[in-house]
Specification:
Keywords: Signal. The chain has helices spanning about 5-15, 65-70, 90-95, 175-190, 305-310, and strands at about 30-35, 40-45, 55-60, 75-85, 105-110, 115, 125-130, 130-135, 140-145, 145-150, 150, 225, 230-240, 245-250, 260-265, 270, 285-290, 295-300, 325-330, 330-335. It is an alpha+beta fold.
């Protein structure tokens, strides 16, 4: 049985969570990716023992449904605590019109509480790709083939996997200087409000150290090493035809718990996007179909806070019930509208 990419990704997340036990008697904790329907919704769960897809359905208007739908967002991992389940009757199953056909169904009749949780496939500090090894140091620096990775603003016309432009000795243009100024201002604001540590970032390698090969979209004089704040992790990895895509999670402070970057690795080198996200660490990563049919890495996350707006807050804001979606398209990160 083949599952869509978004559901197949649940298997990796499920392996890191507590085993699921169905019971018609005792209260239990259920987990799964939420899909909302018109009258009934479901928490999809992939059993780590068998790999079977299980549908945990509930009526939207029921006591369990009101709690789950009020506290969990579609396409994100949801935990329902104090839940009770029974076997649904055939009449109910005939009314369900979900695209997936699980190996079994359970009907959730009760839940005491529900909350969202992260369900990213990986949490690694080292990864061997087809184009070279990635490693994250104790200082949260990203290394590719044991050299610091440079990251800087990316022109909208850049394309993932395009050959790196030849290095130029010409001084930066006004547009390049403005981009560098904006990037520097962003980092200063993040440092003021807890997104960066007080210690300065590790400088670029000294002149005596052999310089890394020019990276795609490298603007001379503006590049800065990619480095996390409180931590940096590799949280997803996809092998496409001519490139590998890696998702990085930069862990910050209480005001902005997490931001993300995509790294594209090709035979020409590595290119890293600017940071993006809603400041939420409640996120999942999947490989979906782009409008042109090509595979497209996507990140879904909770929250509606803009990172700049979060810097002006004096205390962490509660997670807003809004789903944000981001996609890597032609080497750049795009926000996917809710109606897309």
């Amino acid at each position: 049985m083949q599952f869509p990419h978004s559901l197949a990704a649940l298997l990796a997340a499920s392996l890191a969570l507590a085993p699921w036990h169905a019971s018609a008697q005792a209260q239990e904790t259920l987990e799964g990716q939420l899909e909302r329907g018109p009258t009934h919704s479901v928490l999809w769960f992939v059993s780590p023992e068998s790999g079977d897809l299980i549908g945990q359905v509930f009526a939207n208007a029921s006591q369990a449904g009101q709690i789950i739908l009020a506290r969990c967002l579609p396409d994100l991992a949801c935990m329902a605590e104090g839940a009770r389940t029974i076997e649904p009757d055939e009449a109910l199953l005939k009314q369900l019109h979900f695209a997936n056909h699980p190996s079994g169904w359970w009907l959730i009749t009760q839940a005491q509480d529900a909350f969202m949780q992260p369900s990213l496939p990986l949490r690694e500090r080292a990864l061997r790709t087809r184009f070279g090894a990635l490693r994250i140091t104790d200082e949260h620096l990203l290394l590719f083939k044991d050299r610091p990775v440079l990251g800087n603003p990316q022109p909208a016309s850049a394309h993932a996997g395009a050959p790196a432009p030849a290095p130029s000795a010409a001084p930066p243009t006004l547009l390049e200087r403005l981009a560098a100024w904006w990037d520097g201002l962003w980092r200063k604001l993040l440092a003021l409000f807890g997104r960066a540590s007080a210690a300065p970032r590790t400088p670029a390698p000294a002149a005596a150290t052999p310089a890394p090969a020019p990276m795609p979209w490298h603007v001379p004089g503006t590049a800065e090493a990619v480095q996390g704040n409180a931590a940096l992790h590799i949280v997803a990895h996809y092998e496409l035809e001519d490139r590998d895509i890696v998702l990085l999670q930069d862990t910050g402070g209480a005001l902005c718990p997490a931001l993300y970057r995509f790294a594209t690795l090709t035979a020409q080198g590595i290119a890293v996007t600017p940071e993006f996200g809603s400041c939420s660490d409640i996120a999942t990563a999947t490989l979906e179909k782009a409008p042109d049919g090509a595979p497209e890495p996507q990140v879904r996350m909770a929250g509606s806070r803009d990172p700049i707006a979060a810097l002006g807050e004096t205390a962490p804001a509660p997670e807003r019930m809004q789903l944000r979606r981001f996609a890597l398209r032609n080497g750049a990160v795009e926000v996917i509208p809710a109606t897309d």
